[in-house]
Amino acid sequence: MNDHVQTLDTPPSAWQRFLDSHLWHSFTKDRVAQFSLLIFVAYAILALLAPLIAPYNPYDPAQIDILNAEMPPSWEPGSDPAFWLGTDAQGRDLWSTILYGTRVSLAIGLCAVVLQALIGIVVGLLAGYRGGRIDSLLMRIADVQLSFSTMMVAIVVLAVFQATFGTELYQELAMVMLILVIGIAEWPQYARTIRASVLAEKKKEYVDAARVIGLRAPRIMFRHILPNTLSPILVISTVQVANAIIAEASLSFLGLGMPVSEPSLGSLISSGFEYIFSGSWWITVIPGAVLISLVLVMNLLGDWLRDVLNPKLYKG
């Protein structure tokens, strides 16, 4: 009898609470969200395992033969069964370059969003909790940052860096530069959202109780207020990863992104654009379709999360 009572009094595990949550219930009912997550997970697994899955290494010059350049996909006349998606203008297997390119694009997108979130969360927490002149100063800085588009800032910074330090050094640091530029350019999105949440949270009783018992401001902000603002952060992050991938692809298309020797989806699209009207459409179209589908499923996931995590849209 005592064991039975103890079992009834045992609080549910974190996994059980998740299975009982509205988030999981909504996910089991939403076929679009399930399909989008499945596609994204497939992209992530293929990108992560690219060195094991790809039949060729596009970074290894010994595995590239210029005589294989511009071979069509397997369903086109004149194709080679060894290259089922064809080859690019350098003779690289397109399937292999897409796997490695997706890996690079996802890495840049995820790392840039982590940088955005770190800066934006710190600024938003500080502005919302402290208020006054600190709030005004930080939000004016965010307003100035928002007045410049990400692409404009990235183009200016990357072009100046490339002109100052040379193309060779830029190509070595291309991934780091893209992460820094995209990350720093987009932090106000997080800062403004977190600030709005903090302004609402800091008036609640648990924050007053934390102050009364003598907890310091940094602990209150990061240990007590921040966990209650994670819902909007999750929604923003999903959309921002897609935006970061698009920004990287756009910069690569303009020649300011990843070098051709280290393919990303954007650099693949750019490298094949000049051949699209000569008949070698697959060099640009297939990586372009991969990029569009990746961004689409991430935006669909972001829309679903926004609807689920917004209490005003919850209909019980």
Description:
It is found in: Cell membrane. The protein has 316 residues and is an all-alpha fold. The chain has a single domain (31-52, 93-311), classed as MetI-like fold. The protein has 16 helices and no strands. The chain has helices spanning 2-9, 14-19, 22-29, 31-48, 50-53, 94-130, 132-146, 150-165, 167-172, 174-185, 187-201, 205-212, 217-225, 230-253, 265-273, 282-309. Helix 7 (132-146) runs antiparallel to helix 11 (187-201), helix 8 packs antiparallel against helix 10 and helix 14 (230-253) packs parallel to helix 15 (265-273). The longest helix is centred in the middle third of the chain and has 37 residues, at 94-130. The protein is globular and about 75 Å long. It starts with a helix and ends in a 7-residue tail after the last helix. Residues 1-8 have low confidence and may be disordered.
